[in-house]
Amino acid sequence: MILSHAAPVFVLGGARSGKSSFAEKLVEASGLPMHYVATGRAYDEEMRDRIARHQAARQGKGWTTHEEALDLSGLLRRLDAPGRAILVDCLTLWVTNLMMEERDMAAEFAALADVLPDLKAQLILVSNEVGLGIVPDNRMARDFRDHAGRLHQIVAEKSAEVYFVAAGLPLKMKG
Q1: In the UniProt entry, which residues are flagged as the active site (predicted)?
Q2: What is the CATH number of the domain that holds 152?
Q3: How far apart, in whole angstroms, are the C-alpha atoms of residue 146 and residue 150?
Q4: Residue tagged active-site, from 54, 66, 147, 152
C-alpha cells in the first residue's frame, strides 16, 4: 500500500492491535521524508519505558521525531510541506493531555479540523478506538471516551482513507 495523495489517512484500532505498525509501514512505503509526531507524555515510569522503546524502534530508520503534547494543529502547520510524510501517534494521548491541562476540547478539535484540509504533506493520524467497550464507571473516563469519539468522527470525516486495525489486520473503512 503506497500513499498517493495529500489528504489525511486515519488509522484506528484497539490497544496492541497493530495500528501504529501499519501506519509506520504506510509512511515508510511512501519513500517521502518521514516525520513522527509523538503526543505522549511520560506521567509515570511505565510510560517513560514505553516511549523509550518506541524511540529505539525508530532509531536509524530515517525518522525525524517531533514531540508535541498540546499544540498539534500548530506543529502540523509548521511541519507541512509537499513531498513530506507526517505520522501523528496518537490522538488519544493528545486528548488525555488536553484534558489534563483543562483545555477547551471543542476549540482544539476545531483547530485540528481546520488545518487538515490545507496540509500539503501526506498525513497519517493514529488513534485508539475506545468506544467499543463497556461504559466507564467514572466521570473522567466517560468524558475521555466521549471526547475521543467526537474527535474520531471529525478526523474520519476529513480523511480520504480510514482503516480499522485488529489483530494486525487492517480493514479499510473509507476511501
Answers
A1: 54 (gmp-histidine intermediate)
A2: 3.40.50.300
A3: 6
A4: 54
